[in-house]
Design goal:
The chain has four helices and no strands. The chain is mainly α.
Length: 92
């Protein structure tokens, strides 16, 4: 991820990008899990003032998930969804 990127996605486009991400996975379970993970991430992102979309921001989100008591597998799934989000945002 580019640490200099200052904006993730315009808020109006979030659901369109989430849809792109969920279309890129086959399993219905993964689609639901990725959608939920991205909605949660974007909610956190918004509540934290839309910081630069950088490795530091993702690490801060990971720490927030740890502090919230999320399991390692839940955190890894969320991070996987965020990686897909970054890839789709870069490609589109």
């Amino acid at each position: 991820m580019d640490t200099q990127t200052t904006a993730l996605i315009p808020q109006d486009d979030w659901y369109a990008v989430i849809d792109l991400v969920t279309q890129s996975v086959d399993s219905p379970h993964s689609k639901r899990a990725y959608s939920r993970a991205l909605i949660d991430f974007l909610d956190w992102y918004e509540r934290n003032g839309r910081p630069p979309f950088s490795k530091a921001t993702i690490n801060a989100y990971r720490e927030a998930l740890l502090q919230a008591g999320k399991s390692r597998s839940s955190i890894n799934q969320a991070l996987s969804a965020i990686r897909k989000l970054a890839g789709e945002a870069a490609d589109n």
